[in-house]
Amino acid sequence: MATLEDTLTTKRTPLYHLHQANQPNATGWQHLGGYAIKAGQDETQVEPTTGAPACGLTDLSALARVGLRGKKAATILSENHYQLPAAPNQALRQEDGSLVAKLSASEYLLLGSFADDGERISRDELAWQAAERAHRLPDAYLLPRQDTHAWLALTGAHASDVMAKLCGVDLSPKAFAPGHVAQTSVARANAIIINASQADLSCLYLLVDSASACYFWPILLDAMQEFEGKELSIMALRHHHPA
Q1: How many angstroms separate the Cα of 41 from the Cα of each of 104, 147, 233?
Q2: Which of the 8 DSSP states describes residue 9?
Q3: Labelling 237: which of 17, 37, 64, 231 has CA 20 to 30 A away?
Q4: 223-to-145, 172, 219, 231 alpha-carbon distances in Å
């Protein structure tokens, strides 16, 4: 297993320095999408009956994400074989495991898949950037979510219980079903929350301002203590993620 020094890259996630401070010289690091990530899998945080992670918090910021806004955004995405949600504040999982969230009538957020380490989203973003530079992206423009937002995942049966301490919106499974999106305040800061749960894994995605990531992380960990929640690596979550 590589050391942190072995995986030094030019790209850093918003939480990189916090992770580095907690694990400065230890082994258990590897590359993902050009980022250095902690790769260890904490099996003690896996529920023995279901095989799914117990109450856990994962930094997914190394995976690709991008936004697209404008009158032709839906057309561009459809032409690139993305299935789109029917209404704002809904999200739809794609066949490859990526996720498309509709944030307004003309704005979409794309989140990369575990299956290909976000490669599809990264590839399409590069193509759209080239088209934008050549003025071939009419009535639409990219939003650099990779730079502006950190991506966190809160997993386990107590995910909504944890969020109830920090957010005024009812995120219980009955009120906030898989595929629902909330753009709201969490711990007095703005966040996009997506219920990304699948058959064997309860999961809430949180997209928070990059500058606030190091503020959110310890707050979430503190709120999880009641449920014996802990940090999970991407590799641990990916092991139990169907796509």
Answers
A1: 37, 27, 6
A2: -
A3: 17
A4: 26, 16, 6, 12
Helix (H) or strand (E) holding 108: strand 107-111
Q: What is the pTM of this model?
A: 0.89
H/E stretch holding 109 reads: strand 107-111
Instruction: Tell me the C-alpha distance between 64 and 17, whole Å.
Output: 19
Apex 210 CA angle, 126 and 119, nearest 5: 30
With tokens 């301490």, the residue in question is 165
DSSP letter string, 125-188: HHHHHHHHHTT-STT-EEE-HHHHEEEEEEESTTHHHHHHTTBSS--STTTS-TTBEEEEEETT
Contacts of 114 (CB under 8 A, 6+ apart): 63, 97, 237, 238, 241, 243
State pLDDT tens for residues 77-110.
Answer: 999 999 999 999 999 999 999 999 999 999 999 9
Distance between CA atoms of residues 153 and 85, nearest Å = 21
Answer for the pair 216, 15: CB distance below 8 angstroms, yes or no: no
For residue 108, the tally of other CB atoms under 10 A from its CB is 25
pLDDT (tens digit, 9 = 90+) per residue, 98-154?
A: 999 999 999 999 999 988 989 999 999 999 999 999 999 989 999 999 999 999 999
Q: What are the structure tokens assigned to 79, written together?
A: 């032409």
Half-sphere exposure of 122 (CA within 13 A, CB side): 12
187-211: pLDDT as tens digits: 999 999 999 998 888 999 999 999 9
